[in-house]
Amino acid sequence: MDAPATLGAALVAARGRIPQSEARLFLRAIAGVSAAQLAAYPERDLTPAQAARFADWLARRTAGEPVAYLLGEREFYGRCFRVTPATLIPRPETELIVDWAKTRLAPDAPARVLDLGTGSGALAVTLALEWPAAAVTGIDRSPAALAVAAANGAALGASVRWLESDWCAALEPAERFDLIVSNPPYVAADDPHLAEGDVRFEPRSALASGPRGLDDIARIAVTAPPFLVPGGWLIVEHGYDQAEAVRALLAEQGLGAVDSARDLAGIERISFGRCPDGLDALRRGA
Q1: Cross-strand partners of 163
Q2: CATH number for the domain whose boundaries are 86-282
Q3: Element spanning 244, H or E
Q4: Whole-structure pTM value
Q5: Alpha helices in 157-242 (DSSP H)
Q6: pLDDT tens-digit readout, 22-32
């Protein structure tokens, strides 16, 4: 396909290949125009470099590459986060964790918060910005993901400690947190959806987790509670049909007040449990 010479020609070239809304997003990013300018001046010329870039993005999006990776960013909780193929693309459903935390933490709470499997840092950075008095730690086993997370934290002015670790392995035994959150891998390894749509381009290690999709959640349920203070909460995101199994995993580790919360679609999307006061069995080394 020849590179389009104008904004309008670019929209015509994209028609029938990708949604026009996506084509407009690409043009706004490439040409630096507003939505109003794009609508009002379709005859505006694209530079050869801009036209070539649009043609490249159009071809890659037609092949299924996610919009977020092409743009290099995705919004989460009203803020713009950089994303790369080293990180999972933040989903709106994960914002439910932040909403839930608001029901448990006061705005000025000097809480200690841990985000397991931080990826782009969307959760850790958001929690640090929503609770400026909190001490937030973001953990990931991928150095490439941590680099993206750290860049997002710096760009948004969030104070977060970043730690490379396989879940809780690198934490000091004496560390304790008031809130531990995680959006771990929870897709079954043989799920056919892994070969469809945007997820084909996302890191498999951030998506798939064993034959039932529960391997990483089970590890978190075992290894995270010892790092909770009495009364502290562990909350994990999971698949649409996994809530009952996740609640059982949390309860097996002695957590109390185990329950789930539904997203805007009415799906049980997150499950959580509380470390009871004086529950010595949860203490590391007990």
Answers
A1: 139
A2: 3.40.50.150
A3: helix 243-252
A4: 0.92
A5: 215-223
A6: 999 999 999 99
